[in-house]
Amino acid sequence: MEFDLVIRNGSIVDGTGSPAFIGDVAISDGRIVRVGNVSGSGQREIDAEGHLVTPGFVDIHTHFDGQVCWDKEVTPSSWHGVTTIVMGNCGVGFAPVRPGTENDLVELMESVEDIPGTALHEGIPWGWESFAEYLDVIDTPYAIDIAAQAPHVAIRHFVMGERCYDDATADDMQEMSRITREALEAGAVGFSTSRFYGHRDKGGNLVPGTNASSDEMIAIADAFTHVDHGAIEIISDHLKNEDELQWIEHMARTTGRPLTTLVTPETGEEIWELAERLKSEGIEIRPQAGARLASILMTLEGTVNPMRQFPSYSEIRDLSIEEQKKALRSEEFRSQVMADEPKLARDRDTNKMISSWDRMFVLPEDLSYEPGYEDSLQGRADRDGISVREALMDAMADGRPILYLFGEYDYSVQPQFDFISRDRSVFGLSDGGAHVGVLCDASVPTYMLAYATRDRTKGPQLSLEFVVHKMSQDTAGVYGLTDRGVIAEGYKADVNVIDYDKVRLHDPEMVFDLPSGGKRLIQKADGYVATICGGVVTYENGRHTGQMPGRLIRGGQITAN
Q1: Are 196 and 269 within one domain?
Q2: DSSP secondary structure string, 95-164?
Q3: I want to staple 531 with a disulfide (CB 3.0 to 4.6 A). Which of 137, 393, 539, 543 is the partner?
Q4: Is residue 184 domain-resident?
Q5: What's the whole-number mean pLDDT along residues 365-376?
Q6: What was the pLDDT predicted at 197?
Q7: Same domain, yes or no, for 95 and 169?
Q8: By residue range, what is the domain housing residue 65?
Q9: What angle do CA 77, 81, 87 make, to 5 degrees?
């Protein structure tokens, strides 16, 4: 046989943004060796006639730092055509760590990223201290490739101990820079930090480094001047602040490395203007936008359950979910809830999420994540002539999640699609592996294929070629993963074969498959005929083949095409 694998007669969307074309793809030794009309035969052949052939998707914003210790399939991302993930975002992770302080990092991850602490305690083997030792532990076979960033929170905690919430000294800064350099030299693909008010520990404190000085950030950035790889990821509330923008620009200029910052409709234009200005100088700042507006799903089993605000709910909360649903339809119980004085949550944002009736939407059946007013609890109550509390109990009894959308939602996902379409944007913010009790945005590749390019009627669709490009070549390039993300000769053979007409999301569902029976929301998908990582078929029709060709990617060791 001339080739290991040949994919025949597919509609090739090659990841560059170029128009789709019909052709074959030949693979040998984990690489794409021929694209077009392939005359030779393969040891195995896949008939892709009528299907899309795309690069494997590259998800650069995940939090699988703990999960990779026990889940070698890296689900649910691998169910959605993703063949490479980057973790260690938002400044949080599990290395470096001083022996005896592991629980501190677990509690930070549990609080910031809503990952059950019991699952992390049971599932993580620990035993490392440095970031390099952590990489050695997770350097095992996977269904997909994984890469890790050095997290500011863990580094600060390692260097400063109990002082990590205080201002850093000059010596602290130099030590953090040294450790960051060591992490990059060991294979970290970047460094991440959080300056977001919503990232707090269990005591309500802003996570270490949130208010780090510009001197500290610039000192850490110096680590990048000693290596030739890596990106910098920043989540910040201060992107309208001139001082913030100045040190971000300084970091980008002095390191010469790509820098990505998370953006929302409330972020403002300043970071976009800076990115555009620096582009002409070859300096790369990439505002990072998600597919969906920032949101959570509220369910009876989830982390946020709006029924808990009613004292009467305590009578049924320990019942099974089916028994709770039955009680929610009981006239006696409903009367009790109608008479209740709601309890206030300790967190101001939680209070808003569970009582803004016109901003709480029953998740649309079409999974558009683009509901209208009529989908809100207030809209349903107005339509049916009932109380919003009754509308809430009806929805919870039906088992349909309640979707709360943050920010100034105007019944359209268009602001996100506009961000994704802007010249300097990069696609991200899936948060795969995190916020598992309130969302499952690891499914966004399927959402973008099915909804953004095919099913959307509430506004203009995005082109298929553009969306595939934004989820493959473009994301890969930010982290220097220039060996993948394109269907062309010489590239790593990470490929999806997709039945475009059938690709669709399943409803979110709560499962209890984490270590110690921990819960998480998942979303499965239809339409993935085959997913291939490094030339090996890892998924067929949604089922894992048992093959584990994926590996840890170490920064600085990628061979560019």
Answers
A1: yes
A2: -S--TT-HHHHHHHHHHHH---HHHHHHH------SHHHHHHHH-S-BSSEEEE-EEHHHHHHHHHGGGT
A3: 539
A4: yes
A5: 96
A6: 83
A7: yes
A8: 58-293+410-462
A9: 35
